[in-house]
Write a structure and sequence with these properties.
Domain CP-type G: 171-347
CATH class of the domain at 172-352: Alpha Beta
GO molecular function, one term: GTPase activity
Number of helices: 14
Protein name: CP-type G domain-containing protein
Distance between the termini: 46 Å
CATH topology of the domain at 172-352: Rossmann fold
Number of strands: 19
Bound molecules: guanosine-5'-triphosphate, magnesium ion
Pfam families: MMR_HSR1, YqeH-like_C
CATH architecture of the domain at 172-352: 3-Layer(aba) Sandwich
Strand content: 15-25%
Structural class: alpha/beta
Largest sheet: 7 strands, mixed
CATH superfamily of the domain at 172-352: P-loop containing nucleotide triphosphate hydrolases
Radius of gyration: 28 Å
Length: 557
């Protein structure tokens, strides 16, 4: 049992916290009403429906003329052929992004003049003027203007969208918008967020991309802890990717903020494009639009076409559900266009269960710093904590995760990597249920606010993890929480000699944790990601066979 001083240990050592509402209080809140269907505006006349008519020219009369029955049968046969043709044509139409509808260049939502609060809105006067001057491609909708000024507006709801958001578009509709892709010959650039590698990986990418080649871009590496060795992280990413058996041709560690790795992706795209369209795909909020902005920024230094495209670049924002439709960008000289796409909303990420108001708190704002429990000896002295044993304690990560420590070694350490805005609290397991009931929405946030805490279904998924601790000199594994971050499990953080024990085997075997999360949220147990200075010290490269060496995608940063 831990001493009293441990019982409600918040991470007050970490002074940073995110404002929970990022909306500017001086500006009026957007008021949403569920829209009647927004009016779509067609810029070019949509492709004329082909007219299928049966051949009515006369076949003559007399003995050689077809009987009424023959005429009927031939009409029926023609109609079957035509139906098949129609189907084929429909399929052909479905395999291209519909460029006949004019969309907002910021988010890809069709422009409309009917619903002020809905995506794609532009006032009639501006619309008419822009149309007259053939400048509709330069129109930014009302929602994008607000997003560009830091407002947080998600427009996606349901089925892995956001229960608290104003639901103009469903996650399923967004998926539909990408469904043509697998029938096309295209180059796919798939983005994965390093902070949520497993949660954002989009394992079913083949359903979207078909057999098209994939360049894998890992985003936001600027958020990895200080001292991280990218060689080790690159190898870790390739190891994790190889297991997924995808047609990945290369892997790139990038940051759209610091521009690390972006030049490498540009060269790879130029090499592999071969006249095809290039699609940037990925889960919601992994940084697709930010990546396109970074791409255009660097390309425009040498390339006038990219420089021109940069003028009307997609909007990026901290809320998932920024991009709402495919956005075509004329970024390359010659054949092939670049497409930003709406993010795929996955039901198993934390973002799918929290209120839209809380979404910004899931996004790390600065470099991650692991928060370790038990705290190291200096912190123990500072906080007058004696025990370094987690057995019998429960650790809460905001109101989103609870970990009961059933059986670990005396100095086993759990290190939490995730957004600083989400605090970590520790209580004895015997008091954990009551503590959660009392504190959810108050001390344990998100969820925030009384109302959302009342609506909150709690932590319904409970998984008992039995983790192997074979090598006490390196972390055993990470427990990754989809859409939030990960917890590194270090079996032994003090040398074995420090412990008075009669049986050294006490320090090998299994660690037992029970992890509680909201119902749809996925928990991944994975090999530990080697971050920070220490990561570079314990990480071991696997010996590869010649065949593996050939088949493995190369990685760059
Ligand atoms: N630190 C850091 N933040 C990034 C990086 N890339 C994107 N972001 C941030 O991540 C958030 C999401 O970026 P977006 O580009 O809007 O993401 P998206 O994938 O286009 O999102 P959807 O359109 O909603 O699917 C924004 O707040 C970006 O500033 C990066 O490399 N480093
Ligand atoms: Mg986007």
């Amino acid at each position: 049992m831990a001493p009293k001083s441990l019982f409600s240990l918040s991470t007050s050592l970490l002074p940073f916290s995110l404002p929970l509402k990022l909306q500017n209080p001086n500006k009026p809140n957007l008021k949403y009403s569920i829209p009647s269907k927004p009016t779509l505006i067609f810029c070019n006349s949509p492709n004329q429906q082909e007219k299928f008519t049966t051949n009515n020219t006369s076949d003559g009369v007399g003995a050689a003329a077809p009987t009424r029955g023959d005429v009927f049968l031939s009409i029926a046969a023609t109609s079957v052929v035509l139906k098949t043709k129609k189907k084929e044509n429909k399929l052909k139409k479905a395999v291209k992004v519909d460029t006949s509808v004019t969309v907002c260049y910021g988010c890809g939502a069709p422009l409309q003049t009917a619903e002020v609060d809905a995506p794609g809105f532009v006032d009639l006067q501006t619309y008419e003027l822009k149309k007259k001057h053939r400048q509709l491609k330069t129109v930014l909708c009302g929602r994008c203007k607000l997003l560009a000024h830091g407002h947080m507006i998600t427009a996606v709801g349901g089925n892995g969208g956001y229960s608290g958001g104003k639901q103009f578009i469903t996650a399923e509709e967004l998926r539909q918008k990408l469904s043509h892709l697998r029938h096309e010959k295209a180059l796919i650039v798939k983005l994965v967020d390093i902070v949520d590698f497993n949660g954002s990986f989009l394992a079913h990418i083949r359903d979207l991309a078909g057999s098209n080649p994939i360049i894998l871009v890992v985003t936001k590496v600027d958020l990895l802890p200080k001292g991280t060795d990218f060689n080790c992280v690159g190898d870790w990413v390739v190891e994790a990717t190889t297991k997924k058996k995808l047609n990945v041709i290369s892997v790139h560690l990038t940051s759209s903020k610091s521009l690390v790795g972006i030049t490498g992706v540009i060269s790879e795209i130029q090499k592999e494009k071969k006249g095809r369209d290039v699609y940037i795909l990925g889960a919601a909020n992994v940084g697709k639009s930010a990546f396109i902005n970074a791409l255009l920024k660097l390309m425009s230094q040498k390339d006038l076409v990219a420089a021109a495209a940069r003028k009307y670049k997609p909007i990026q924002s901290a809320v998932p559900g920024t991009t709402l439709g495919p956005i075509r960008i004329d970024a390359f000289l010659g054949d092939g266009k670049l497409f930003d796409t709406p993010g795929v909303h996955l039901h198993h990420r934390q973002a799918a269960v929290i209120h839209s108001e809380d979404l910004p708190s899931l996004a790390p704002q600065s470099r991650l710093r692991g928060r370790s429990f038990p705290v190291d000896s200096a912190d123990r002295t500072r906080n007058k904590i004696e025990a370094n044993d987690l057995n019998g304690l429960s650790i809460f990560w905001g109101g989103l995760v609870r970990i009961d420590v059933l059986k670990v070694f005396p100095s086993t350490r759990l290190t939490f990597y995730g957004p600083k805005a989400i605090q970590v609290h520790m209580v004895p397991t015997a008091e954990a249920d009551e503590f959660y009931q009392k504190q959810v929405g108050i001390l344990l946030t998100p969820p925030t606010g009384k109302q959302s805490a009342d609506d909150w279904a709690g932590l319904q998924t409970v998984r008992h993890l039995q983790l192997k601790a074979e090598n006490v000199n390196r972390p055993s594994c990470d427990v990754a929480i989809s859409g939030l971050g990960w917890i590194t499990v270090d079996p032994l953080t003090e040398p074995v000699e420090n412990f008075v024990t009669e049986s050294p085997e006490e320090f090998t075997g299994e660690l037992h944790l029970v992890v509680h999360v909201p119902k749809p949220v996925e928990i991944f147990v994975r090999p530990p990601i080697p971050v920070g200075k220490r990561g570079g010290e314990w990480y071991e490269y696997r010996d590869l066979t010649e065949k593996e060496e050939d088949l493995r995608p190369k990685w760059y940063f």
